[in-house]
Amino acid sequence: MRVGRFRDRTVGGVVGALTFFRLRQDERFSPSPAGDAQGEDSALFHTVMGCYDLGRGGYGQEFRDAMTSAEGDLLVLWDVRLDPEWRGVGLGAVLASQALWTLGAGCAAVAAAPDGPALTALCESVGFRLCPRPLGCLLDPAAEEARDAREEQRRRYDALTDAWRAARHA
Q: What pTM value is reported for the model?
């Protein structure tokens, strides 16, 4: 699943883009989520392989032990890009948080493979935690820490909205 360019509806400009992949656990959609990931991108394949057990099928034992529940799909936050004029105020984390909680309904986890300090910081701020190999960076939607991070991002969104309104009406 790709989320295309998103727009700031208040001023009509492009803000950036998010890329997510959702790998279905349900055989009707995808009997081989790892194969689907490999066809898309080799780095995505390695991220997904940390969660799956190809020998048994389904999620691996390390994944099952790390998650509150191993029932549901796997959502992968693959990329967050903000146009330069929107960077530096925390908007990437706010938008990524809202998108992953919206798109992550029915998911056992959200995985990420941060490829640099900016994406690593974003992942930490929205509730991901670094798990031992082979899992990588995971967000457990049922974990209290993840829900707390979501609420913090909602408060940040409200603060950004209030600041924007105040600047616009000043």
A: 0.80
Q: How far apart are CA 26 and CA 31, in angstroms?
A: 7
| pLDDT at residue 119 greater than cutoff 50 | yes
pLDDT at 33 > cutoff 60: no
Beta pairing class for 2-7 and 73-82: unpaired
Q: What is the distance between the alpha carbons of residues 20 and 2, in angstroms, rounded to a whole number?
A: 5
**Radius of gyration (Cα) for the chain, nearest Å?**
17
**Reduced 3-state DSSP string for 105-168:** CCEEEEEECCCCHHHHHHHHHCCCEEECCCCEEEECCCCHHHHHHHHHHHHHHHHHHHHHHHHH
Asked if omega into 134 is within 30° of 0 (cis), the reply is yes
Mean pLDDT, the chain, rounded, equals: 81
Q: Which two tokens stand for residue 130?
A: 């670094």
